[in-house]
Amino acid sequence: MYDFNLACVIDDDSIARLMSEIMIFNYKIAKKTVTFENGKAALDYFKLFKDKPDMLPEFILLDINMPVLNGWKFIERFARLAPDLSRKVVIYLVSASLDPQDHHRASALEMISGFIIKPVNKTALEQVVRAAMIDKNITYFGK
Fold this sequence. Notes:
Blueprint: E1 4-10, H1 14-26, E2 30-36, H2 39-48, E3 59-63, H3 71-81, E4 90-95, H4 100-108, E5 112-117, H5 122-135
Parallel strand pairs: 1-2, 1-3, 3-4, 4-5
């Protein structure tokens, strides 16, 4: 049985997007995954489906460094949109960055539940699941 109905991966790296999507499916974390190659495309999706909770993901894996609209700008705009969404969404930043400034900036943002260093792995995904389930008031015992 899947933990969630819908996950979201926002990353300009097509291989990272695909690998995250495969792991989310194979580890039965979410039935479906929507993917976007930049923050603008994802924001457009959220605006379009803001009143449809079944079309909104329970969590987002968000890359920081992307063209068009990077992860930081996405968070700024998503924060303005979030109160209008029909579902609360847990956001985890995903990056290859080891820059302490990125980690500090992420931890200072209330909207960010955590920071995952690429590549995404099963342990990191379990951390995301726990945070999303806590948000939904569900106890997670792991698989």
